[in-house]
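Good morning,

Attaching, inline, the backbone tokens for the sequence recovery test we're adding to the shared suite. The designed sequence is right after.
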């Protein structure tokens, strides 16, 4: 239950991404700068956090990255670059509600990725199975998200829908895949703070290339875009990412609980919608969208109930054993 609450808190800070990315696009800022600046700004904060926690953190992280440099580069690219670059690109073609709503497909994506991972139990390699109950509950949340999209989609062109949705679907699979593969690779030897720093460092070559391309194609970013990118970096890149990684790291051995924690990202829709209403004067959602919000909340409560129930069953089994 604590992990779900941490996930919801992370979703609150994650929602800043969708609101401010939409704001930057309305002001004419390029998605190339929106994506790369976030990770440039994240780096010094993460270095400071790991340094405060002790010098040994850098030694452990350095050792892990030197042992598997290729894996760190690949899964950091998947988990960070293929996650955030498509999100900022989509913001250039679709409103914040469309991007944040489509992003919730990651709830189902995370559940479907389970068979890609193998757990060793008593010396035997066992391939994880798709947790059907978690998949069903995630489907309820996804249905609520679709209800939110219906009234808005009627006023958006097909091109905007495709360019605003397809990149986000890529991001929806990339983020949980990169996160889970890095947890599997690290095996608990590095904490979430070190892991976020390591993944940020490993993804820097891609962000540097994007920034160079942006410099020669759209010029330097505006002062407003730099400031808003800094806010996104602190709120979403540092605070939200670390909170989410802490929550998922605690339940990394249980696919059902992991799916429940990843499902907390659905609350980003609520936070993003309220944020756009307050900051960008987006009107109050239509009744069908409000019904969708209620369905999402019900789905989250079901996920929480299922997690608590599974914990009780596990505790009972351990006591009997």
């Amino acid at each position: 239950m604590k992990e779900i609450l941490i996930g919801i808190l992370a979703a609150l800070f994650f929602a800043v991404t969708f609101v401010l990315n939409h704001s930057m696009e309305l002001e004419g800022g390029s998605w190339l700068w929106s994506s790369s600046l976030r990770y440039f700004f994240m780096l010094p904060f993460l270095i400071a956090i790991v340094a405060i926690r002790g010098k040994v953190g850098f030694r452990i992280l350095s050792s892990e990255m030197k042992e598997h440099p290729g894996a760190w580069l690949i899964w950091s690219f998947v988990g960070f670059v293929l996650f955030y670059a498509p999100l900022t690109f989509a913001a250039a073609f679709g409103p914040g509600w469309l991007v944040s709503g489509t992003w919730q497909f990651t709830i189902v994506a995370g559940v479907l990725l389970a068979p890609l991972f193998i757990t060793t139990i008593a010396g035997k390699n066992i391939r994880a199975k798709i947790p059907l109950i978690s998949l069903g509950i995630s489907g309820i949340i996804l249905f609520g998200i679709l209800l939110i999209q219906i009234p808005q989609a009627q006023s958006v062109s097909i091109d905007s829908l495709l360019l605003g949705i397809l990149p986000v679907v890529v991001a929806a699979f990339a983020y949980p895949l990169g996160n889970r593969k890095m947890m599997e690779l690290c095996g608990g030897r590095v904490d979430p703070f070190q892991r976020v720093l390591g993944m940020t460092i490993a993804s820097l070559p891609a962000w540097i290339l994007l920034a160079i391309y942006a410099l020669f194609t759209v010029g330097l970013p505006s002062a407003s875009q730099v400031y808003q990118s800094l806010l996104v970096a602190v709120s979403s890149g540092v605070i939200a990412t670390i909170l989410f990684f802490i929550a998922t790291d605690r339940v990394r051995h249980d696919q059902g609980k992991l799916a429940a924690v990843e499902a907390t990202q659905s609350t980003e829709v609520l936070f993003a919608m309220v944020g756009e209403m307050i900051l960008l004067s987006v009107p109050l959602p239509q009744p069908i969208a409000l019904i969708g919000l209620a369905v999402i909340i019900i789905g989250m409560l079901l996920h929480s109930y299922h997690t608590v129930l599974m914990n009780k069953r596990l505790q009972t089994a351990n006591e009997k054993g």
